Input
Amino acid sequence: MSGFSSHHQQWPYDGGQHQAPGRQPAGSPVGAVLYLLRSWAVALVLSLVGRYLTGLLEDAVSDGGRPGSVGMRIVVVYAPLAVVSLAAALAAARMHPEPYRSSPGQHLLAALAVPLGYQLWDIGAHWAGRGVEEIAAPAAAVAIGCMFAVYVDLAEPVQERGPGHWR
Output
């Protein structure tokens, strides 16, 4: 016996929490930024794919133009936009782990930056030639989707997984 027991070995990276080498300790500023970026990447992919699919749906229903009635625009354009925003914000929120999700500011930034930022970019990029409905209704749909995503995220606790899980 050499007097060295492997179960008493501690990783020098985390103060004995048995974290894998090379990973940032829980709560570090670098870890916070990396987890924000991961959340934003997931939200961006879902936003791009979702908006592309809603654009295809709108083109299929309206023959390349804008759907005629307000009810049709709500069903074909604004409701799917709210669902895409909900999915993107909720996925981003769920990808944001503890201890960072305990900070309301960091967690809301992780969840809402991409859907709201994407909508602001869309408004700025296509400002010319748009009426009030074409600016306000999509913005309201995105805001409603984000609001429901935050509600669902807060209502259903995230089940933490054991060590070594990808999340």
Observations:
- The chain is about 65% helix and 0% strand.
- The helical segments are 29-62, 70-95, 104-125, 132-155.
